[in-house]
Amino acid sequence: MTGCTLRQLQYWREKEVVVPVIGDTGIGRSIYYSRSNLVELAAMAYWLTMGLNFDVATRTLKQMKEQEPELFNSGKGGRYMLLWNDETRSLELVEYNRERAIADLADGLPVIPVWLNVIYSRVESRLLTGQG
């Protein structure tokens, strides 16, 4: 449903990137991912496939959860992008600006979309259709 492997789920849970509810059943344990957890997982998987390394993807997820926490629950909110910041020598999360994105691309700099509303819609669609 999210594009994640079981190993990714386990690793991200161990690193507390995405923390599901874990319930003891007496004969083992059950792991439950909320809707917002599923969006977080799908976002991480998407960013990794876009070429971000684990640390940058994790940092981006953390920033998004701080800046737009409702976006993970409703899919409603602004669009963002990751842009290169020469001063910090790292990717920076900023609100989407088409002109700036085009200018940075023209200068050969990376521009990575961070559109959780699109990722949210995909997860929601899969939940409604029962794909998984």
TrEMBL record:
Pfam families: MerR_1. InterPro entries: DNA-bd_dom_put_sf, MerR-type_HTH_dom. Residues 1-63 form the HTH merR-type domain. This is MerR family transcriptional regulator.
